[in-house]
Specification:
Length: about 220
């Protein structure tokens, strides 16, 4: 069975957009936009394009690496889907019951000096190697799926699409800078949006468990 649009496009795109509206992610994006002040509109658009591409490529490489690790587990991937499904359900319940702090951990592999740079390429690397606490469960959830794809291309593509939709909305604020003020209002609105994340993870967990029980992983990845 070939990978469907759901796994390759809709799921990573939806999780990317969900990650974009997470409060701490919006705060990081505001910092990025602040580094681009003083540039002309065309320069700012070019900088954001470079940032989006580099960040998406870094995410894609993470996905390819996880898929590579998963290739050696092709014989037990059905079990892996079940395990990840249970983990997603657990994370979803934590968000729905107000205990999301237990799974929110920031990981940062980028040097601090990179985050103070104005070069969009360096900033793309820095943001790609930084996992904000509020977005970490979403990212690790998708990385888990990338691990079970069994193909490097699929793993890369899933995470590339995630990174693309996590960053692409910034283009709107590069084209119309006055909209940037609205980002803070969005962050405030979603500050208590844990239930939405929890609901998404519960659905993802149920789907993953169904997949592990009823789909032959070896046939699915060809």
């Amino acid at each position: 069975m070939e990978l469907g649009l759901y796994a390759l496009i809709f799921l990573p795109a939806g999780l990317g957009l969900l990650g974009f509206v997470e409060p701490c992610t919006i705060g990081a994006h505001l910092l990025f936009l602040d580094t681009q002040k003083g540039r002309s509109r065309s320069q700012k658009i070019e900088a954001v394009l470079v940032f989006i591409l580099v960040r998406s490529l870094v995410a894609g490489l993470f996905g390819a690496g996880m898929a590579f690790l998963g290739q050696s587990l092709i014989g037990v991937q059905s079990g892996a889907w079940l395990v990840f499904g249970v983990i997603y359900l657990f994370v979803g319940v934590l968000f729905l019951t107000g205990y999301a702090a237990m799974v929110k951990r920031q990981l940062d592999f980028a040097p601090q000096t990179w985050k103070r740079a104005r070069n969009p390429f360096v900033l793309g690397l820095a943001f790609g190697l930084n996992i904000p606490a509020c977005a970490a469960p979403i990212l690790f959830g998708l990385l888990g799926l990338a691990t079970t794809t069994g193909t490097l291309v699929a793993g890369f593509w899933m995470m590339f699409v995630f990174g693309l939709f996590l960053s692409a909305p910034l283009m709107v604020f590069a084209i119309v800078p006055k909209f940037s003020a609205g980002l803070e209002r969005v962050a405030f609105k979603f500050a208590h949006g844990g239930r939405l994340v929890g609901f998404v993870f519960v659905l993802l967990g149920l789907w993953s468990i169904w997949f592990g029980l009823f789909v032959d992983a070896a046939n699915w990845v060809g």
